[in-house]
Amino acid sequence: MNMAGFYDESISNGLGWRAVLFVSGCPHNCPGCHNKAAQDYKFGEKFNKKEIIERIKANSILKGVTISGGEPLCPQNISEVLDFIKEVKKEKPNFNVWCYTGYTIEQLEERHDSVTDECLKQINVLVDGRFIEQKKNPTLKFRGSDNQRIIDVANTLKENKVVTMKI
């Protein structure tokens, strides 16, 4: 997996101070994408999990990590993303994990594969759905278009229905 970028600190990619990993590669090709260059799977540099984990461990103000893209949950990236999340949680057990994806949670659940299922269990908040330029709304927090949802993943899996968060 390639990495399109990494922020050591951000407050605009989820609640609280967070590290942000941008993975490379995305199959969606949404018109108006804010990170068009990251759609290329070869964009950026090779992801160095150990280095990124060390940077996260060294930063005492962080409350969580956000994984964005590109597309972190596409078949080409999801295994390494899951491995990264597990490693982060091993080092920082109380960390909150946000993930941005162009897939809906329903599409991810329909995969019925163990990697996707485990990845969803490791994610606290999922911002789902493709960016739709006609539904762009700059007043929204943590999402770009009205169709995208901010989902409490644990409660969604437990209740077997989508539980969105009011932010």
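[next item in queue]
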Amino acid sequence: MDFLSLVDLAQSVIDGLLFGSTYALIGIGFTLIFGVMQKINLSYAATAVAAAYLSLVLVNVMPTPFVYITAALAGGVLGWMIYLVCFRFLPINNPHATLLSTVGMLLAIEELISHVTHGMPLNYPAMFQDSNIEFGPFFVRGDLLFVFVLGCIAMVGLIQLLKRTRLGLATRAVAQQPVAAQLCGMGIASTNVSTFVIAGLLGGTAGAMTGAAVGVLSPLLALPLTVKGLVVTVIGGLGSIPGAIVAGLIVGATENLFQFMRGVSERDIYVMLMLFVFLVFRPGGLFSAPGGRD
């Protein structure tokens, strides 16, 4: 392999790491809900894409930063609605009911987006799209750097919220010992709905980041983001937010690496093989929870 090929290879890994922050946010959303309720919300990534679509309502009347803020807020509202429809009134002791309800919601959101947009992709505004930062033979795309920085801000904000606020204390308590948390006066239902709203805010941000990095929004994004989010959640370790962050960056870099080496048609095959390897040799993920009592 010559020098130029090595440069292109390293450039692909850099771009993948930057875009991996989007996967990390999706994985964090899955992880938050699973950590608190021990349930998987399969409609989460579709909700993130729908929130990004809703933010396009302001694209012609407001500056671009407000479009991203709108996407996050729309994600929070949609997260609250998903909780009410798919979780709040279904039997707690029947995990299959909520799982199937979120599958139905995933398909419903995907079909609704396809119906409203007639299946056509829509352009999404990007920040710093035409600006690149060069260092030696490498360069960093301005739009991907913006996506990475925005993702880092969202992740740091979430960690601070969980560690330093009463809502974060309640969320962690309900995730670890729901009965004890309830005996201490913490409302299970209110904590659950707050978790869905927080996850929705992250999801809306991730949807906007995806649109900014790709340049367009498409109904076809919902299913791939769902799959990549689940892959990140499993590789990072179910219930581990640091694991979701690290796994998101790894999946992003690996995806771009295999795309460079084997082409876009084989890219996802190797990501699935990587998931298989983790399930065989480290089923608990990178940051698996320790056994025994807390």
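[queue empty]
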